[in-house]
């Protein structure tokens, strides 16, 4: 069985993703300028493809950095515990920051990052997320740029994983229920 056989349906294909990401970039291009280059912080691992496509549409000078956060076990449900696996290499003191996330679900991860960043005195922090699941929110987490609002379904592909796999699929899709039927 190939990975594609595990997919129930495609929510956003490559064209839809690229078109929306170009629009998000345009929104940013009118806000940021070369005078104060922001730092785009890619939240690993899920946001790596989104960052790669987004950054190519940005017309203002910017830097990129990476932070890895763990909030999940191997399955589809949150363990609740959030911790930093890889911290920023840059000093964000006095800098404009754009957090680049794959998906905001319960909001715990983003809340943790925002709280952590506020103690580092950035000039500003905005949040860009490719996907948003507002119906799952447990804590209020502000997002400035949203690619797509999605219903309460577990999605994968385009950087997002199920049990660390499927990140390479070029689209966002939903798994067939039998693929994770074993999970409690
Ligand atoms: P939150 O802390 O519940 O908002 O979860 C944020 C993180 O959980 C995201 O950055 C993803 O890595 C992961 N996540 C949440 N929902 C999904 C999903 O539907 N598919 C894949 N990963 C998800």
Description:
Helices cover 19% and strands 33% of the residues. With 184 residues, the chain is of the alpha/beta class. The strands form two sheets. A six-stranded mixed β-sheet has the order 4-3-2-5-6-7, with helices on both faces. A three-stranded antiparallel β-sheet has the order 1-9-8. A hairpin with a 5-residue loop joins strand 3 and strand 4 (78-86). The mean pLDDT is 93.
Offer a quick outline of the entry:
Helix content is 19%, strand content 33%.
Looking at this protein, list some descriptive labels.
binds inosinic acid; alpha/beta; Rossmann fold; 3 helices; about 20% helix; about 180 residues
Overall average residue pLDDT = 93
What is the H/E order? EHEHEEEHEEEE
Helix content: 10-25%
Domain unit count: 1
Which residues form runs of ≥5 with pLDDT under 50? none
Question: Span between N and C termini?
Answer: 23 Å
Label the structural class.
alpha/beta
Shape: globular
Strand order of the largest sheet: 4-3-2-5-6-7
> Compute the gyration radius: what is it?
16 Å
Say how many strands there are.
9
Which cofactor or ligand species appear? inosinic acid
Please count the helical segments. 3
Report the sheet-strand fraction. 25-35%
Top CATH class: Alpha Beta
By CATH, the architecture is named: 3-Layer(aba) Sandwich
Main beta sheet strand tally, sense and closure: 6 strands, mixed
The CATH topology corresponds to Rossmann fold
Write the layout of secondary structure elements.
Blueprint: E1 7-12, H1 14-29, E2 39-44, H2 48-55, E3 63-72, E4 78-86, E5 96-104, H3 108-118, E6 124-132, E7 145-149, E8 155-156, E9 172-175
Parallel strand pairs: 2-3, 2-5, 5-6, 6-7
Antiparallel strand pairs: 1-9, 3-4, 8-9
Helix pairs in contact: 1-2
This protein binds inosinic acid.
């Amino acid at each position: 069985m190939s990975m594609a056989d595990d997919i129930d349906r495609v929510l956003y294909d490559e064209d839809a993703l690229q078109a929306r990401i170009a629009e998000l970039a345009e929104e940013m291009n009118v806000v940021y300028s070369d005078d104060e280059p922001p730092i785009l912080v890619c939240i690993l691992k899920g946001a790596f493809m989104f960052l790669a496509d987004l950054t190519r549409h940005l017309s203002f000078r910017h830097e990129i950095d990476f932070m890895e956060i763990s909030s999940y076990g191997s399955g589809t449900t949150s363990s609740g515990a959030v911790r930093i696996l890889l911290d920023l290499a840059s000093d964000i003191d006095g800098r404009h920051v754009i957090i680049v996330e794959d998906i905001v679900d319960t909001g715990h991860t983003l809340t943790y990052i925002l709280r952590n960043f506020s103690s580092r005195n950035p000039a500003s922090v905005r949040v860009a997320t490719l996907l948003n699941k507002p119906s799952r929110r447990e804590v209020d987490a502000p997002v400035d740029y949203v690619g797509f609002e999605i219903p309460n379904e577990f999605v994968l592909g385009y950087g997002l994983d199920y049990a660390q796999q499927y990140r390479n699929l070029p689209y966002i899709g939903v798994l067939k229920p039998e693929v994770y039927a074993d999970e409690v």
